[in-house]
Amino acid sequence: MGQLGANAHGEVLEAGRVPDCYLGLLLDPAEDAEAAGVLVVAPAALLHPVVPQPDGTVLYELVTGHPDRTPQELVFLVDLAVELRAWPADTWSKVGVDPQAVAAAVVTAQEALALERPAMTYVRAQLGDRLQRQLARAARRQ
After folding, report:
1. Could you tell me if residue 111 is inside a domain?
2. Does 5 reside within a domain?
């Protein structure tokens, strides 16, 4: 059983269940004139020794083991925060996890420089798919 135990629906995180999903970390622009970027992170990076633990492990469990997670999915910290609400310890502070410290450990100068066009193309496609699903749900409700 994972660090969080069972949620309000009796579901538990199964870490590694969906290993081919990704965490998107927003990058602050170096200068005000630059657009913000996104670093697409493989979940295994959250388990690296430079990442504060158990914080990285909890994020890894949420990213790869959430019952609703699908292959190739791109999730952001805000998505994980929303999903965390289903657990009794429903906030990062109650869990004792600092997701910003994890993000800061993962985002290094080399990784930020490695953000090239193929990664941005992937992010744009993922965000486009997500927006299309939200629009389709909204249209069905009307």
Report:
1. yes
2. no
Write down the mean pLDDT value for the chain: 81
Bridging pattern class, strands 74-76 and 22-27: parallel
- Which range of residues forms the domain containing residue 88? 22-141
Residue 46's nearest CA partner among 64, 30, 33 is 64
Contacts of residue 62, defined as CB under 8 A and 6 or more positions apart, other chains included, come to 4, 13, 80, 83, 84
- Which comes out higher in pLDDT, residue 121 or 48? 48
Q: What is the pTM (predicted TM-score) of this model?
A: 0.72
Per-residue pLDDT of 103-136, as tens digits, reads 988 887 345 445 555 555 666 677 777 777 777 7
Q: Domain count of the chain?
A: 1
By the 10 Å C-beta count (0-12 exposed, 13-18 middle, 19+ buried), 20 is classed as exposed
Q: How far apart are the first and last CA of the chain?
A: 41
